[in-house]
Design a protein that fits this description.
Blueprint lengths: L15 E6 L2 H11 L4 E4 L3 E6 L2 E7 L9 E4 L2 E4 L2 E5 L2 H13 L6 E6 L7 E7 L5 E7 L14
Parallel strand pairs: 1-4, 7-10
Antiparallel strand pairs: 2-3, 3-4, 5-6, 8-9, 9-10
């Protein structure tokens, strides 16, 4: 069966993600200031950010709950609803340094997950000011990003 969307295209297509925030000024400071995402279009109700070529859009809402439970992943309680990026190691390490310099409080501190397996990865989790969970990771073997556990040998 052929997939309508390539599983790992030679050219990556930008994704679009819209998510709720309770304060656009805080979102602008977090995504634009802390993470360094250039701002695109905006209105009084939403802001587009460029997250490494992907369009993420913070939409202002009066209230919402970002606490939707967690799942055990290699000994850490990972928030089920989260988004983020897979970065090259050098970029991931630079992000960790920038976050540490700014005194960011981690949801899950930078660590090595799935150590000793082809899926080994450095990862960290943090929350934006509205409570949205973000994950940034770096694969020790980038080609193993989609390797299934039963294929790891």
């Amino acid at each position: 069966m052929t997939s309508a969307i390539p599983s790992y295209p030679a050219v990556m297509h930008p994704f679009h993600l819209a998510f709720p925030v309770t304060d656009l000024s805080e979102a602008r400071a977090f995504y634009g200031g802390l993470l360094g995402c250039p701002e695109g279009r905006s209105s009084e109700e939403w802001i587009d950010f460029n997250l490494c070529g992907h369009q993420i859009v913070a939409h202002k809402v009066s209230a919402f709950s970002a606490e939707e439970g967690g799942s055990d992943v290699d000994g850490h309680l990972v928030p089920v609803r989260h988004f983020g990026l897979v970065l090259p190691t050098e970029e991931w390490e630079a992000l960790v340094r920038r976050l540490d310099e700014r005194g960011v409080s981690y949801l899950i501190k930078p660590c090595l997950r799935f150590e000793g397996t082809p899926g080994a990865q450095q990862t960290l989790f943090l929350r934006d000011p509205s409570g949205n969970a973000l994950e940034f990771k770096s694969m020790l073997n980038p080609k193993a990003l989609f390797t299934r556990f039963d294929e790891q040998g």
